[in-house]
Design goal:
- The chain is α+β, with helices and mostly antiparallel strands.
- The chain folds into three domains: about 100 residues; about 70 residues, 2-Layer Sandwich (Dna Ligase, domain 1); about 140 residues, ATP-grasp fold, B domain (D-amino Acid Aminotransferase, Chain A, domain 1).
- The protein has ten helices and 13 strands.
- α1 crosses α10.
Length: about 325
């Protein structure tokens, strides 16, 4: 059994949020300990030496948590290597991981299949802003980052001049295109899903309580909210699980989450972020087929929180994901 930990940065320029995506040693060790209850585990770093290490160790299956090293396809690098070596692994395949990390392709795919998602524009340069027609307020996001990288409290705009100046600066800073998205001011949820079609299970829905944020912060789970204000020492009361929902709205959120999960061919696990529009219609914001799993219950990590509400301990969550992959690969 192997785990890959992330190394390196997708950007040429280091910024304050450079390390946001990477798992801590505590998380890596917690996953190792969970799997070690039933299996022998070898840790393999997701670096340039991993190819030879996989050949040397000859794992039966890999528990993949690698965020990868460079570029938009970085989350697909380890799964692609494993597929070439014919080594089974947990989680989604290279296509799903690459597509879901790319916010533009994700939203194009959702739009084509008529799954609600906020209207958007992708900007590479000032030329892309010439026919700007989105409705303010809008929010800007780097095209291929996770863990709230590049999404700050200052990322919401209400006028074109300020938006243009900022988004062109961010494109240079992050060395990638930026997504401009109409900002939905409704309630926000995140939905964890475990397993595989047709037996995938939707975990209890988590709601993000923006009223718990300091008054100076906008109602988004920004980099500041996630990594500065919300700490293990002083956690925000920012998540409710299960969310307080009517049966109708709960069913609508679960339906759109599960439909998205199957549409993108997600495997074993995923976390899907959803926000309500002005008509209370659930809109898919993004899919996270390589979700964060902080082990400490004091940390606001959504998937473990939803799993605990469902009745799964951290160790049971990790081993459930592994067992789904074992069953899917017919290794049992």
């Amino acid at each position: 059994m192997n785990t890959g930990s992330p190394t390196g940065t997708p950007n040429s320029k280091f910024s304050d949020d450079t390390y946001a995506e990477w798992d801590s040693f505590e998380t890596i060790d917690a996953i190792r300990e969970a799997i070690s209850i039933y299996h022998n585990v070898t840790l393999i770093e997701a670096d340039e030496k991993c190819f030879n290490r996989f050949i040397e160790v000859k794992p039966d299956i890999v528990f993949n948590i690698s965020e990868g090293k460079n570029g938009r396809s970085r989350e697909a690098q380890i799964p692609a290597i494993l597929e070439m070596l014919n080594i089974p692994y947990t989680g989604s395949d290279p296509w799903t991981l690459t597509t879901c990390l790319d916010k533009q392709r994700t939203k194009e795919f959702l739009t084509y299949h008529k799954i609600p998602t906020p209207k958007f524009l992708v900007v590479n340069s000032d030329i892309d802003l010439e026919n700007f027609s989105l409705t303010f307020p809008v929010i800007i996001k780097p095209i291929a980052e996770g863990s709230s990288k590049g999404i700050f409290n200052s990322s919401i705009f209400s006028d074109f001049a300020t938006l243009k100046t900022s988004v062109l600066e961010k494109i240079k800073e992050y060395n990638q295109p930026f997504l401009i998205e109409e900002f939905l001011d409704g309630r926000e949820f995140t939905v964890g899903i475990l397993g595989n079609s047709p037996n995938a299970v939707v975990l209890p829905i988590v709601e993000i309580n923006f009223e718990s944020l300091p008054s100076e912060l906008n109602p988004i789970y920004s980099y500041e909210a996630k990594w500065i204000y919300d700490t293990t020492e002083n956690p925000l009361d920012i998540f409710s699980c299960p969310a307080n929902l009517t049966n109708e709205l709960s069913d609508a959120i679960k339906k759109i989450a599960l439909r998205s999960y199957n549409l993108f061919n997600c495997k074993d696990w995923c976390r899907i972020d959803i926000r309500l529009d002005k008509n209370n219609i659930p809109n898919v914001i993004e899919l996270n087929p390589l979700p964060g799993v902080l082990p400490d219950p004091k940390d606001n990590s959504c998937l473990p929180k939803a799993a605990r509400t469902f009745g799964l301990s951290y160790n049971e969550l990790i081993n459930s994901v592994l067992n789904f992959a074992i069953e899917r690969n017919k290794l049992a």
